Amino acid sequence: MKTPTESVMVLAVADIAGFARACRGKSDAETFAMLDRFYRLVGKTVPKAGGTVVKLMGDCAFVVFPGNKAREAVGALQDLKAGAGDMWAAFGSACRLRVHAHIGRVASGRIGPDRRFDVVGKSVNELFMMPWDGPEWSEAMRKVAEE
Known about the structure:
The chain is of the alpha+beta class. It is globular, with a radius of gyration of 16 Å. It starts with a strand and ends with a helix. The protein has a five-stranded antiparallel sheet with strand order 2-3-1-4-5, with helices on both faces. Helices cover 42% and strands 32% of the residues.
């Protein structure tokens, strides 16, 4: 087993609010097409800003950026929200993309039987515990992004 790399990363989750409701009147093929378009948007926007798509989970994406790319991460997440807004109109849906971002120490590397890249640690837990009705950026992320 290879030792994971420990570093500071910007961590972000993007979730499609209203997705289940929007899918009610759609066929499975239409839902698939909506997710494919979202996944492609994430896959294009995040790497362009120096980030990595860790995983796509249904209507949610978990992405990371190097800690020294906080401003680029903020820009990419804003671009992601704008691009997703255009996408929902094409599907006749009132969905919106909710984003949370945090920065902190993590361990990353290849893990599991398929040796897939993943990121773990207390900072990841803190990101996923942020309430959706709260601010998009954690206090730590706001400080770094404003520098």
